[in-house]
Amino acid sequence: MSALGMTADAAKNRANRNRKRVGRTRRPGIDTPLWNALAARARVYLKKRGAKSNLARILGVPRQRVSDYFVAGSQAPDAERTLQLLFWLIARENLGAIETKPALAE
Questions:
Q1: Are 41 and 94 in contact (CB under 8 A)?
Q2: Are 45 and 91 within 8 A, CB to CB?
Q3: Could you report the per-residue pLDDT of 72-105, keeping only the tens digit for each?
Q4: Domain locations along the chain
């Protein structure tokens, strides 16, 4: 390869590096406040032994992926799994509300 060809390839690579990445998946962090709030609410229910494994089965992902979502914070689920997680969380919160209600006097 000639020096001119190598220079053209280097310029093309540099242009690709500086391009704005449209449609790129966001990583959890300060730029994702809604995910942070959802994850914080879910962590309350994931402290019990086996809870992460059960959630992984529900979401259809490996257990390690659930750990990546909530412990490491290195990944976030796709849209479908986020909706499944939201419904799981609502069910847990409603179940907790039912269990903590005082018994009605008969």
A1: no
A2: no
A3: 888 889 899 999 999 999 999 898 766 655 555 5
A4: 24-100
